[in-house]
Amino acid sequence: MPQAGLEIDSVSKRYGDVVALSDMTFEVRPGELFGFVGSNGAGKTTTMRIALGVLAADAGEVRWGGQPITLDMRRRFGYMPEERGLYPKMKVLDQLVYLAKLHGLATGDAHRAAEEWITRLDLRARRTDEVQKLSLGNQQRVQLAAALVHAPDVLVLDEPFSGLDPVAVDVMSQVLKEKTAAGIPVVFSSHQLDLVERLCDRVGIVNKGKMVACGTVDELRSGAPTELVVHAPAAPLGWAADITGVTVMSEEDGRVALRVEDWVDDQEILAKALATGPVREFSRRRLALTELFRNVVHEGNVR
Fold first, then answer.
1. Which family does it belong to (predicted)?
2. How far is CA 66 from CA 9, 27, 94, 182, 255, in A?
């Protein structure tokens, strides 16, 4: 199967008077790990379900490789829902073999693929256990195996890291990196923004059913307000409060964090700090994705 990207083009969805999605548009390129983040109810799961054909959109289109997605194409997708989508009384191995066969694998191939992912995800000791008897973390591993067992060409994962211990997070992270290295587009949602920042090539931030910011973390930083850290030990409390275009975010023991508008000359801030005495630190602070998310969603700072 040639490498192809996943496109969400102007997708909208309503439930009565509630707008779940409004003109949702983004793409996941071949070999790209795309992080899909937003508050609860922002529209992430609805978007994923529409991409998988579980829900129908009111407007817009989902394409793969530039073509509208058909049922046969969707069989090449691997989907991991946020809610447990497994048969609780079915044994792990039997379940994975059954799901692989549903996706078209022959019985022998299905068994080989199931055993491969059971081993890879450290589930061999649980392969004959019923899913309902597993810990939540191991259930999550089985859920990932179910999304991968048929060697999909697209991965759509809803909160895949939820409930995992650090070792399992590392294993899953490595699996996702291997899939993107093979040219597979991967999109996953997560509230663990430190993981999203570390793993993803690009990030889309969703708010109230709309894509409000999209790009690499560095690109998102470029659209956020500048923050400066200034340490002037001899400066009086509030020395920066009256500088036009500057907001004091925190101040303690001569160290202040300042939010600075684009048009402000930071050299003027430095000069004012030096006028109070020595300056031990004057630096720009790189915002973490958590702070960028807060800026975009809660404060509306998007450009």
1. Belongs to the ABC transporter superfamily.
2. 11, 11, 36, 19, 53
